[in-house]
Write a structure and sequence with these properties.
Blueprint lengths: L1 E2 L8 E4 L2 E11 L7 E8 L5 E7 L3 E4 L2 E12 L2 E6 L5 E5 L14 E7 L4 E6 L3 E9 L12 E6 L4 E5 L7 E5 L4 E6 L2
Antiparallel strand pairs: 1-6, 2-3, 2-6, 3-4, 4-5, 7-8, 7-10, 8-9, 10-11, 12-13, 12-15, 13-14, 15-16
Amino acid sequence: MANTSDIKKGLCIVYNNDTYKIIDFQHVKPGKGPAFVRTKLKSLTSGKVIDNTFSAGHKIEEVRVETRKYQYLYPEGDTYHFMNTDDYNQIALQKSALDAPELLKEGEIVTIIIRAVDELPLAVEMPSNVVLEVTHTEPGVKGNTATNATKPATVETGAKINVPLFINEGDKIRVDTEKGAYLERVKQ
């Protein structure tokens, strides 16, 4: 058993008979009254994000997890297939276990969180950014650059991302997987 002083980003806990991962937290010490911890929890089974407040000293049940590197192989409907990079075992996970499946391209290395007690895969952590090729975008209009103007673009995985006007088809771009947003153009 842990308590609120042990709360940190990435910690997996049992809350309301479900396994949650802490994605954000804030210790609050008001001028009046007891301290508390405001958290944002993501369910590792359903993917739902909830806000919760724990009072100071509250006991929380930690879940022991392991992280392993897997390579993404291919999709099959709503099922995604991965291969362990160490022992080449393959596992299949539902689309709901992934944060941004539309940004996942074949061959990408991801981290899978596995519950140590029963070897159950809980969630897939994408790399912080991925490099994708733009497959379709309209040409930018010259002179439309007074502000940070953007245009929609489709990348090789089928995801739609807003990019600056100077991006053309065939360009490789770096995409933030957490926000699904354009970061920069990658030199060839």
